[in-house]
Amino acid sequence: MKKITFILISFFTAISFAQTPIPAPSPTPILLGFNQSFGSVSSSINFPIGQQFGTGEIFRFRPGLVTQLDSGSSFGFTNSRWFSIGRLNTGSQNVYGLRFQLPNRALTMGYQDINDTNPRLQWVGAGSSVGTDFEFRVANSFTSTNSTLVATMTNEGNTFFGSPLATSETKVGVDYSDVATNSRTGVTVENGKSESNYYTITGFKSINNVSCTIKTGMSIRSDGGSYGNTGVSVSLLDGYYNTGVSSSVRSQASGGSSNGVRGSVTGPSGVTPTGFGAGIYGSSAATTNRYAGYFAGNVVVTGSFSSGSDRKLKNDIKVEENMLEKLTQLDAVNYTFKPNDQLNLPSNLQHGFIAQNVEEVFPELVSTIKKPILDENNKELGIYEYKSVNYIGMISILTSSLKEMNEEMTLLKSELADLRYEAQSNEKSKVEDDEGTIDGGFLMEQNKPNPFTDQSVINYRLPSDTKASIAVVDLSGKFVKEYELANEKGQLIINSSDIGKGIFIYTLISGNEVIISKKMIIR
User: Structure pTM?
Assistant: First the structure.
């Protein structure tokens, strides 16, 4: 009975002792994985217990490493499968964090060493596993391993968002081909913070400072049929000064070619396109100091240069007249430009007009340009103002003046021809009487009206039983038209549609003899 009593006392004593909290041990070195719990350790946990329930700490380990060997005979890197958390000695240094080790490949998360300021997520591959990719996936089930790939990082340093693209094509790619929406955006860079002070925000920046044969900051390609393609779309609203695309190019001193902006447009191979196309297209409001294109330097055009001149685009069309007198008020000059740090002006000899002189005679051909003055960061510092001449508008004025000069010259030629004709007239010295009748009873009056545009009338009279005609020639003597006169007295109607425009000589002819000649002008 005493033995039984002793056994029972020992049993209950052990139970009571086991439930007594163990004081914290002294900070002496211990083996890795030593249990340092300040409370009793339960053999099973039926529901989660945490500090949020106020039950205190559950488990604690001394400084070191906690590991779990899942497969293999040792915690090696080539044949074993294991897990660790804490301070891991890799042979050359200590790393701090988590490690998931599979044969020849591993995933680590933590700090490279105790003095490292930047944590890292790193995967390691050796041998045949060097090309292993790191994937980011999303799943909607706790019991299934099915998931959707959302991003991939490769050992070559590539990062792909969405399904992986070919690693030889790009470093960072976005693939959203499986997105079932009508509108897709590959990358959005949003700066939503507002600041009252002046500062600079850059949404996208590309830097290629490595030395190589060809560099491209951004390459955009859109193949396949679509209703509309836009490589780069820029919308800038309500800024004090806006620049949609800014380009600055500097060439090497040894030569070569450079283009600040280069554009081209073609059609399908072997097919002549019928739609509109422009390598560079610019538009602006038709108001003061707004231009579809502004070039501070020389402009070269190898093809045609044209502007909208269709009749359907114009109102109040009037023929330019009496421009020669105004044109004589302009002084044609030659000159060289002054040095100017705001305009890229040529240094060689120039020919043209002075804007202020043109403005006095043709003010509609002169405009005032107000060019912004920008610093090296394209910030506007002020306005540089100067006058410009519309030399294209001068063309119609010059053309009208040439027509006036030509008409005067033609008139002089006609008068000269008349003098020659009078000098070569037959020696019969036919003289018209007061009514214009020529010796022999012939009469041919001056056409009325003269000059004319549509029709003119010539009164004539012939001697009895006389056949005659009126022939029309131009100033060069080229035959134009001949009219047979059927009556002894009558009127001959001349239509400009039968003759044309210009100055002509009409002559009364009878019996192969020139009777009299006169001049008419058709406009």
Answer: 0.50
